[in-house]
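User: My advisor asked me to double-check a structure prediction for MD-2-related lipid-recognition domain-containing protein before group meeting. I don't want to rely on an old file, so could you generate it fresh from this sequence?
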Amino acid sequence: MRSWIILGCLIQIVLSAERKNLNSIKITNVECIPNDEWFNDTKCILKPLKNRSILIQGRTFAKKPVKTLKVHIEIHRWYSGFRPYLVNFWSDFCDIISKPEKMNALMKPFYNLITTYSNLRGPCPIEGLIEISPAVPELPVIPSLLVTGTYRCVLTFVEKDLDQWIYTFRVKAEVTSALRE
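Assistant: Sure, here is a fresh prediction for MD-2-related lipid-recognition domain-containing protein from the sequence you gave:
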């Protein structure tokens, strides 16, 4: 019973945070780590702008089609080293892209970020150029789930049928004000 109450509170925070941004977030580092069998020409770039915002850009080229894709989403918080914090789950990426109405509430912020800022909008298979177009991401939901501190978000992609790691995307960020009402 207690776990259902906690899950309900998390879902409420996610849904209410979409309407207002309670914290500010500064992206400080981004890493793209591809499996060379699957991807080449990989670039991830952070570029600071004059108004203290950060422009993020990335691109990679899929050498062969990715037919089924699982994504492992983790958020770590810095406590004398990065430790797991709040979010740690697997999801079937192809199912979410093809049927977004069936995704769980915790996946929605990540889905919105991926479909807004990348060209991963169509159903699987995923092939060819995958791109995060140059943009200053609007992050209204993610920081509202977090308190002041340094965080790392890790997205690990695995080819589901072959159970083979194909890509890891890491973003390090600092949240500068605590959640409060």
